[in-house]
Amino acid sequence: MRHFQLPTGNKIPALGLGTYLSPPDKIEHAILAALKAGYRHIDCAAIYGNEKQIGAALKKALKLFPREELWITSKLWCDAHKPEEVLPALSQTLEDLGLEYLDLYLMHWPVALKPGVGLPGKRDDYFSLEEVPLRDTWRGMEDCVDREIVRNIGVSNFSIKKLTALLSTAAIPPAINQIEMHPYQQQRAQVAFARKHDIRLTAYCPLGSIGTPITTADGCKPPPLLKHPLIMTIAKKHGCTTAQVLIAWLLNLDIIAIPKSITPERIQENIKSTEIHLDTNDMTAIAELDMGARIIDGKVFTFYNSPYTIENLWDGEF
Ligand SMILES: NC(=O)c1ccc[n+]([C@@H]2O[C@H](COP(=O)([O-])OP(=O)(O)OC[C@H]3O[C@@H](n4cnc5c(N)ncnc54)[C@H](OP(=O)(O)O)[C@@H]3O)[C@@H](O)[C@H]2O)c1
């Protein structure tokens, strides 16, 4: 398994297992299957509602592997953005996961919600970023590093504009930005920015998050990536599956990929993508598929007279 070195010197495995929408009663089996297949990196989040069950799996895993061999990421939910709320939120995640420290903790969204709010359902559920600025939340994240319960901190769903602002005030620069990335959303500006500022990108929805339709800004509905004729042709050429092509494409760009699966055969199939080497022709052809289409558009934060709009959430980088 390839690793990428972060500014702290810690090395993050290039491939991890996603856990969004992994049902609590299936996740333990999936994690143990993943570890058996060679995964050492699990991507979690408090809002996914399955960290306790992941903790049960990790308890078993830690009898087989030393803690230092595993890379565990989790994410701060938007309802704990006030600096004094970050540590209690992290403590809950650590308790649920049964861990003493996280390898990586991310601010899940650049959106602040009132304590206890999962997804917003009324105007009063929101704080604006003027009321709870991102730089203040980041101070809470930095405090967790100082307390040595988190080794690396980063962000998710941050625009270049928000990253630039954060970099200007942060004592510890974000190590990672976790963003949606696949051939329909290639994030070229983010890739260039990340390289320049030594920020590593993690790609979520690497397989196109099956089941969720993709719509472009102009309303076009492209075919599911796993069935795209070009991806199928490249898969045939390499004697592999379309999922493996999509993951290999990201790894070839030095992007961390976190495909989710609860199916042991697919979990195994996905890690074998580390053995697929796409050539320049494949990469050039896939580059043509970019259409700036998002699966996770953040609209969920824009209803009920929200202070957040698609424009200010993505800063026009949609
Ligand atoms: N930071 C954020 O805001 C954010 C947002 C979204 C996601 N994420 C993270 O990124 C991870 C990945 O994104 P995602 O779960 O949305 O989408 P994804 O990994 O692109 O797709 C997951 C789907 O693909 C299926 N699948 C997996 N391997 C397959 C294979 N080899 N062949 C065919 N189908 C396959 C899975 O089915 P089965 O499970 O049934 O096998 C599941 O339905 C998440 O789980 C989460 O950890 C982060």
Instruction: Return the average pLDDT rounded to an integer.
Output: 96
Number of strands: 12
Using the alpha-carbon principal axes, give the shape.
globular
Strand order of the largest sheet: 3-4-5-6-9-10-11-12
The CATH superfamily name is: NADP-dependent oxidoreductase domain
Radius of gyration: 19 Å
Content-based structural category: alpha/beta
Biggest β-sheet strands, sense, barrel? 8 strands, parallel
Q: Alpha-carbon distance between the termini?
A: 33 Å
CATH fold description: TIM Barrel
Name of the CATH class = Alpha Beta
Looking at the overall shape, the CATH architecture is: Alpha-Beta Barrel
How does this structure look, described?
- This protein is α/β, with parallel strands linked by helices.
- The chain has a single domain (9-219, 255-263, 293-314), classed as NADP-dependent oxidoreductase domain (TIM Barrel, Alpha-Beta Barrel).
- 36% of the residues lie in helices and 13% in strands.
- The chain has 11 helices and 12 strands.
- Strands 3-4-5-6-9-10-11-12 form an 8-stranded parallel beta sheet, with helices on one face.
- Strand 3, helix 1 and strand 4 (41-43) form a beta-alpha-beta unit.
- The protein is globular and about 55 Å long.
- The chain starts with a strand and ends with a helix.
- Residues 18-20, 43, 108, 156-157, 178, 204-211, 226, 243, 258-263, 266, 269-270, 296 line the site of NADP nicotinamide-adenine-dinucleotide phosphate.
- NADP nicotinamide-adenine-dinucleotide phosphate binds at residues 18-20, 43, 108, 156-157, 178, 204-211, 226, 243, 258-263, 266, 269-270, 296.
